[in-house]
Inverse folding.
């Protein structure tokens, strides 16, 4: 069943409001095995709503519209849908009585303008709105289904859960949506895609999307299953993708990188201390987001200035002068120093140029060194991270956690 969502409301075409209803509707449809193929945001202009709905009816079996059911002149969803379907729109006496009763129960007389909310499209089934004044509607039209829903999320959500989903379940007849997710670090989006695309494009029945966030990449795989279908092809695709991406895949269970790193430290009975220059606390903050992190995380030193690097992590001043504060040498010295200062098994450090100023041709903005030391072995990684200051700091945090994971994977 092809499903489509149309969010009606001019406010969502401004920079101030986003359409969150469609995310909720998509989640609920997916749970019932229905994929959403298209979603649109359209302003409160009847002609635009009509043209979007006309196209939707040509390509989708289930069309859900949210918003535009209020009492004012700019609430046009009812009239637009009635026009497209060629059905009458008229006041329903039962709905009008219920609306008046709703106002009366709160001690108000219903304003005349609200009578519009008692308008019903010919042949529509009313979806009761227990949390607002605008009822929803369920309409069957030549084998397709059109659903009108109120805009406010607190009204839409219960209507979806209690009244719409039971109907969708009957329509989707035991269908399910099977999903798998691969979380990847240490590779760029294009590196991931160049390795993964030849494999996933050979499985057109599985929808694969690649999503890049600062510092990590997510590959999402989903497949619509009919009753009795198994997930063998989905699992086999996951297996082949892991084969080519190797240990860049840090989770297939939706865990964060800090959680995976924390589990590795705990399994190996290791403790960690961090020395942070350019990220100034972001690595420690991420690590301690995980409940129970006190079992392996001892603490961190924010060594932003050169003086702090020397005073708190025993980096020789001469080394900072000769190699520069942003260098492999200073990163390694910081990792060794913080490990000694906090008596941890592993010291992790980061130093870099977050910008926008401070870069040079030799050491550009975005240059970051991460070092890891366990006393016996020290390693460092260098990367030039593109983006603005905050993006660089966020990606650098992932880069450090990713380096730490790699360090532990490489240990015998
Ligand atoms: P009402 O009876 O309250 O007027 P309505 O069905 O006419 O309901 P709208 O007037 O379109 O709904 O929207 C009311 C409010 O609901 C908006 O100001 C906005 O805050 C919220 N809203 C509408 N559509 C969405 C959406 N797609 N996602 C999130 N919030 C929404």
């Amino acid at each position: 069943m092809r499903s489509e969502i149309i969010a009606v409301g001019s406010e969502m075409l401004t920079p101030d409001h986003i359409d969150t209803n469609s995310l909720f509707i998509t989640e609920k449809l997916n749970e019932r095995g229905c994929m959403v193929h298209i979603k649109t945001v359209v302003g409160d202009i009847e002609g635009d709503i009509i043209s979007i709905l006309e196209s939707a009816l040509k390509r989708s079996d289930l069309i859900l519209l949210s918003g535009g059911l209020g009492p004012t002149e700019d609430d046009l969803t009812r009239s637009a849908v009635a026009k497209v379907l060629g059905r009458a729109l008229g006041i329903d006496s039962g709905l009008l009585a219920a609306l008046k009763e709703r106002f009366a129960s709160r001690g108000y007389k219903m304003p005349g303008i609200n009578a519009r909310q008692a308008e019903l499209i010919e042949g529509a089934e009313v979806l009761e709105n227990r949390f607002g004044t605008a009822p929803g509607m369920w309409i069957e039209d030549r084998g397709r289904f059109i659903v009108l829903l109120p805009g406010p999320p607190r009204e839409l959500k219960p209507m979806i859960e209690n009244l719409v989903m039971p109907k969708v379940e009957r329509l989707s007849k035991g269908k399910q949506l099977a999903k798998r997710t691969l979380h990847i670090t240490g590779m760029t989006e294009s590196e991931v895609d160049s390795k993964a695309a030849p494999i996933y494009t050979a499985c057109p029945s599985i929808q694969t999307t690649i999503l890049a966030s600062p510092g990590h990449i997510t590959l999402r795989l989903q497949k619509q299953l009919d009753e009795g279908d198994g997930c063998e092809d989905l699992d086999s695709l996951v297996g082949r993708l892991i084969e080519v991406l190797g240990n860049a895949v840090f989770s297939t269970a939706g865990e964060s990188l800090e959680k995976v790193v924390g589990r590795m430290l705990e399994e190996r009975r290791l403790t960690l201390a961090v020395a942070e220059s350019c990220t100034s606390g972001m690595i420690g903050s991420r690590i301690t987001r995980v409940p129970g992190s006190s079992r392996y995380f001892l603490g961190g030193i924010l060594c932003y200035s050169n003086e702090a690097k020397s005073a708190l992590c025993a980096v020789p001043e001469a080394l900072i002068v000769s190699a520069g504060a942003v260098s492999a040498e200073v990163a390694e010295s910081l990792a060794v120093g913080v490990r000694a200062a906090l008596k941890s098994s592993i010291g992790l450090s980061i130093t870099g140029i977050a910008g926008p100023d401070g870069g040079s041709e030799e050491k550009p903005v975005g240059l970051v060194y991460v070092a890891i030391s366990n006393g016996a072995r020290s390693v460092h990684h260098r990367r030039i991270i593109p983006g603005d200051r905050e993006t660089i700091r966020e990606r650098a945090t992932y880069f450090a956690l990713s380096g730490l994971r790699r360090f532990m994977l490489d240990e015998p």
Notes: The two ends are 51 Å apart (CA to CA).
